[in-house]
Design goal:
With about 300 residues, the protein is of the alpha/beta class. Helices cover about 35% and strands about 20% of the residues. The chain contains nine helices and twelve strands. An eight-stranded parallel beta barrel has the order 3-4-5-8-9-10-11-12, surrounded by five helices. The protein has a two-stranded antiparallel sheet with strand order 1-2. α1 crosses α2 (about 60-70), α1 (about 35-45) runs parallel beside α8 and α6 runs antiparallel to α9. The longest helix is centred in the last third of the chain and has 21 residues, at about 235-255. It is globular and about 50 Å long. It starts with a strand and ends with a helix.
Length: about 300
């Protein structure tokens, strides 16, 4: 396993972070709790000590499942959860108000069965609460010992200006980035450099298209979000382009004796050398396929091929 110390912190974390969206049990097809719990256990056995979730994943179910899976090992790992998305009652709104941060945090602490959260992320900015109020509240919670550090999510170059006075305060920022989605590449690097933090990637396997398990004949059920056109990686011209990327990945994987998913993750780790990759899993086999990304590097020709096919 590879580890990195998150900027502006003393947290040493695995460069592979287990993503908790599937643990919400909603929108990813068939998900079984026993497999999720086994995947959490497998992650720890393989040296993964970093787990990402959010209060909105399954309306809290992801946090509950993670707590159950970690059990007595909670203090051995780093938990990252998020606030700022109020969901339920048929509508979703963004809320970064200090009052809501307090409410959301207390609820997350209960579900995670812990008295502190290692990293508390602003899931999305609400467009109205001044960042000074948000960071002020987070600093208060940090002083109280309820959170250890805080970070950002889904911040782009056009949202940087308000953050600049707080450079060095945030430990990380996560955004969508993969061979199937490079639109945020420059933004992620700009945020990393100008705010002096660790970049993290979500959607790192393109919602699964970069695992090599799917093709143009795949049909998802109504209980799987990927059936919807908005999940562009599985539809139309975007799907065709992604399958071209997968063909290159498959050749590299066969040559390297690695899984296709591992090669897709390795590309991110080598392209963003100070990054952490988040990859959600539903079962131990997926976790084990992802772990194969650790402790090796793509060579220059492999990087060139993947850069070319994914531009």
């Amino acid at each position: 396993m590879e580890y990195i110390t998150l900027k502006n912190s003393n947290l040493q974390v695995s460069r592979l972070c287990m993503g908790g969206c599937p643990m919400g049990g909603y929108g990813w097809g068939k998900v079984e709790e026993k497999e999720l719990l086994a995947a959490i256990g497998s992650a720890m056995e393989h040296g993964v000590n970093f787990f990402d979730t959010a209060d909105t994943y399954g309306l809290g179910q992801s946090e509950r499942t993670l707590a159950k899976g970690l059990g007595p090992h909670r203090k051995d790992v780093v938990i990252e959860t998020k606030f700022g998305v109020r969901a339920g009652g048929g509508k979703t709104v963004y809320d970064n108000s200090p009052a809501y941060i307090q409410t959301a945090l207390e609820a997350s602490l209960r579900r995670l069965n812990t008295d502190y959260i290692d990293i508390y992320l602003i899931h999305y900015r609400d467009g109205k609460t001044p960042i000074a109020e948000v960071t002020g509240k987070l600093e208060q919670l940090k002083a109280q010992g309820k959170i250890r550090y805080y970070g950002l999510s889904n911040i782009h170059a056009d949202g940087l200006a308000e953050m600049l006075p707080y450079a060095g305060k945030f430990v990380c920022c996560q955004n969508e980035f993969s061979l199937a989605c490079r639109k945020n590449e420059n933004d992620l690097q700009a945020v990393q450099n100008r705010l002096d933090l660790t970049p993290m990637t979500w959607g790192s396997l393109g919602q699964g298209i970069l695992t090599g398990k799917y093709d143009e004949h795949t049909v998802f059920g109504a209980d799987d979000r990927r059936s919807r056109d908005v999940y562009v990686n599985f539809h139309g011209e975007k799907l065709a382009k992604n399958l071209g990327i997968v063909r290159v990945l498959r050749n590299i994987a066969q040559h390297r004796g690695k899984t296709i998913a591992a090669c897709a993750i390795r590309w991110i780790l080598d392209t963003l050398p100070e990054s952490v990759v988040i990859a959600g899993v539903k079962r131990p086999a997926q976790l084990e396929a992802n772990v194969e990304a650790m402790d090796w590097h793509l060579d220059e020709e492999e990087l060139r091929e993947l850069d070319e096919v994914s531009k």
